[in-house]
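job 3f2a | input accepted
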Amino acid sequence: MEILGFDNPVFAQFAFYSTVLILKTIGLALLIIRSRIKRKVFAFPEDCSQIIVGKHHLKPTSDDAYIERLRRCHLNNLENVFPFVTVGLLYVLTEPEASTAALYFRIFLLSRVVYDIAFIRALPQPSRTFSYLTGVIIICIMAWSVLQKGTL
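job 3f2a | predicted structure (152 res):
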């Protein structure tokens, strides 16, 4: 059985959850675009040049709290999904127990979904902090496994 093939249940689970996370991150980018158009909030003059409100072109602005919240949530996803995919792939190479790996992948995905909801909906802390830390802990656990396997 190849480690990086879909006949390996750990790799198949990893590929599935990584793809869901990447699509979720792309979905956030599309939500930002949709929200900018709906709210007529654009960051750059060239984005505003074709939009006329009344007799005037829109002016660039970056002070819309909702757009900024979406944008920062997307940035946080980029900062966390990339390490998950990178470390997760290395973790798959350690040939972990399938049930343990699946649990880690599911917890990470759930932590990111909870984080996004908490951030976008401005839920009270510590909801966002706990969900963020849960994801970081999962990445660290997988990284530790990789480091241990690499020193053998």
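job 3f2a | The helical segments are 9-39, 45-48, 65-93, 98-120, 127-150.
job 3f2a | closed
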